Amino acid sequence: MSMFKKGGKKSTPNIGTSSDIVFMLLFFFMVTTQMRETENKVVVKLPTASESAKLERKDLSSYINVGTPITSLQAQYGNETRIQLNDSFKTTKDIRDFVAAERESMSEADRAFMTVCIRADENTRMGIVTDIKQELRRCSALKIMYSARKAD
Amino acid sequence: MARRPRLQTYDSSADIAFLLLCYFLMTTTMGSQTGLSRRLPPIPDENQKAQDQKVNRRNIIVVRINAQDRLLAGNEPMDVSQLKDKIKIFLTNPTNDPNLPEKVPTEIAGLGNRMVSKGVISLQNDRGTSYQAYIAVQNELVKAVNELRDEASMAEFGKSFIALSEDQQRIIKDIVPQQISEAEPKDTGKKR
Questions:
Q1: Cys-Cys crosslink for A110: which of A11, A106, B71, B118, Cβ 3.0 to 4.6 Å?
Q2: How many domains, chain B?
Q3: Is the pTM of this model over 0.80?
Q4: Which residue(s) pair with A82 in the sheet?
């Protein structure tokens, strides 16, 4: 009957295990997390597409954000649709340099697989997207992806 | 009394870990990127242009979206929901209609001769088309091709397309190619 005798007093080690669990969760999130590299300066609400497929190599993709500036920046930049590359507003002319810089940062073997993700807001007009596409064709970054949310 | 300090050290380390955990929870972006992959055509050379125009008229379906997001597929206006079936009929040509694309027997590795459609979908949009409508149409086109691929893989391998191995998927992609050409925009509507 001594099996159940200690029950009431032995509550202290539980704190140790709970911290272990928290640590484990912490490591999990530290490993799976990837820091947002750039801050969004444009509002992007992605359109939905039921057939959207996963991007295979995330590290080989570069992003072009297209949308209207966020509310806090609208006083400065207006509410026209803008292109955001890395951390600043750019025009289609700058895409060439952007693509060149992204290519440069990749290893020789990976350059052929570079994908440019066009993250455009759903209310964007196609004119600006077409300009981007034409510019990408000109600097022969031909693999592109239209970012879209997966709809059920 | 001797127990107290030990208890506290446990407690604080758990708290610190918990704070860090909260930090990572907030900053993490878990969801992976999804979207529709496309390959843009390279800028054509001058001497290549003549060859491109030789594609037979019956092999092309023109899908046009205007500035009001209205859809025109093969010269008839329609809703986005009807587009998929139209494309499927266009690509399969079940009645061997002379107005629909021709099918040529092609040697497929490992399977022998199969009829492969020469149909090309030409997607044209206006500068005023909204991105949402454009993606919706792109999605329907991909869906039509995906369903045809599923049917083909069911007929050839008895499995759905996703369940096939990579080599088998490549074979099915040869039988049902995804030929979507994104033409340069035409300014039909008002410029915005």
A1: A106
A2: 1
A3: no
A4: A67
d(CA B27, CA A35): 7
At residue A18, φ and ψ (nearest 5 deg) are -65, -35
pLDDT tens sequence across B37-73: 888 877 766 655 555 556 677 788 888 888 888 888 8
Question: CATH assignment of A42-150?
Answer: 3.30.420.270
Task: Please indicate whether, in this complex, the C-beta atoms of A49 and B191 are within 8 angstroms of each other.
Answer: no
Instruction: Judge whether B136 lies within some domain.
Output: yes
Counting one residue from chain A and one from chain B, the pairs whose CB atoms sit within 8 A come to 158
* The pair of three-digit structure tokens given for residue A26, joined into one six-digit string: 């912490």
Neighbouring CB atoms inside 10 A of A1's CB total: 4
- The torsion of the CA quartet A126, A48, A119, B68, rounded to 10 degrees, works out to 10
Residues in chain B: 192
CA distance B110 to chain A (A): 28
Which of B62, B181, B129 is closest to A120 using CA atoms?
A: B129
Nearest to B93 by CA among B85, B81, B103: B103
- The domain ranges of chain A are 7-32, 42-150
pLDDT tens-digit readout, A25-39:
888 877 777 666 667
In chain B, which residues have their Cβ closer than 8 Å to the Cβ of A127? 127-128, 185, 191-192
B84-98 b/e with 16+ CB inside 10 Å = b? Answer: bebbbbbbbbeeeee
Query: Residue B153 is part of which domain span?
Result: 51-182
